[in-house]
Every structure is written in C-alpha cells, then in structure tokens.
Amino acid sequence: MKNNEKRQGVISGVSLIVMAILAGFSFGYAHSSLVVESPELTLKNLFENKPLFLAEISGWSLIFVADLVVAISLYFFFRNTSKQVSLITALIRIAYTLLLGVAIVQLFKIIPVLNSENAVSDALMIAKTSEHLQLFEKIWSVGLIVFGLHLIGLGYLSVKSASVHAFIGYLLYFGGFSYTLLHSARQLNLSDAGVLNSVEGVLALPMALAEMLLAIWLIYNGVRKSSLKNKSGV
Asked: Which domain of life is it from (predicted)?
C-alpha cells in the first residue's frame, strides 16, 4: 500500500469516527431530547435549551464538513481498486452530503423563532418550527436513501480491495441495502411508521457497525503498516 493511500485511509477513518461521535451528540442526545411529539412542548424545549440546540446545529455543520472529507479521501484510497467505481461512490456521498446540508438549513431557520420572546405562545411560530423540523427529518431521510447507495459502492470496493477485509465489505453491503430500503419504504409510506421504527431499531447496530469497522480497519491498517516500515528502517 502506497504512503498516500495509507494517509487517505487514516484521514477517512478518523473523520468517520469523529462523525460518529458528533452524530451521537447531535441526533442521539440533543435532537432526541429537544424534539418530542408535541409541537408546543418541542418549541418550549428549544426555547428553554437554546444553547443545546445551537450546539446540535454546530454538530451537524461539522458532520457536513467531515462527510465531504470522507468522500474525497475514500476516493483516493480506493481509486487503485477501481477508479470509476470509486469516483461514482464519492459523487454519491457528496450528493448525500448536499442533501444533508439542505436539511441542516431547516434547523438554522428555527433560530430567528427562538429570538422572539412570544414564540412559545404564538401558534404561527409553533407551526413554523414544527414544519422546519419535519422538513429536516424528511430531507435527511431522502439523503439516507442515497447514503445507502454509497455504502453499497463502498462494499463493492472493499470486497475487491486487497487492503480491506472482505467481511467489512459484506457488512457495508448489508448496511447500504438496509438504509436504502428502509428509508425508501419510509418515504413511500409502504408501512406503518411504528413498524419501520421497530425495524430500524433492530438494524441500527449492524448499519452503524459497517462504517465504524471500516474506520477502525483503515486507521489500524495505516498505522500498522507505517509502524512496520519504521521498524524496518525503510
């Protein structure tokens, strides 16, 4: 493995882990704590916990940047495996990232509402906030359909690559198909939301594990090979 390839792999791996931590905070903690079923209570939560909401938006913004870094660095890592497939896979992730960016804009649009003293008791403000949050989740869900296609591309590249364990590739295939089919079903209303949420709860771990194992492998592979090279005096 060439030095540049190793470096790009480490950059991708570190960026993926940073993104996982940021997503755990922004969506797993902040968003889930602030956004509830009641639009009135949601706006009240946002109004009373504005610093947490701003921190959530900051987290999403950093995820947006990290996603672009991952798309580019993974292209350079896998281009010797298949330049064409690697480029298509990178462009698909960039497309997903742009959709995520459009979704994040919906969160920014809520900030002016929170600067209004009477927002909590204003029916129009409550409705606007609810609409922006629903759009955020809908656009992000559409983006995750595209993200699933990216994972399928990564799965193909990982299976074909001599630098990544094939098991990780097959896990990426599984994660990719899961994201795409689950969120396609959600957008097309093919099943009850409760059923889809239950299925997502079951699949969440293997779906997340796919990219995390890839990240750990990329970092380990890059650092291990660098260490061996240093020890050999080359």
From this structure: Bacteria
Residue by residue, pLDDT tens for the chain (234 residues) are: 578 888 999 999 999 999 999 999 999 999 999 999 999 999 999 999 999 999 999 999 999 999 999 999 999 999 999 999 999 999 999 999 999 999 999 999 999 998 887 767 788 889 999 999 999 999 999 999 999 999 999 999 999 998 899 999 999 999 999 999 999 998 988 877 778 888 887 778 888 889 999 999 999 988 875 544 444 443
How many Å separate Cα 43 from the centre of its chain?
Answer: 25
d(CA 136, CA 57): 12
pTM: 0.90
Residue type, 222: G
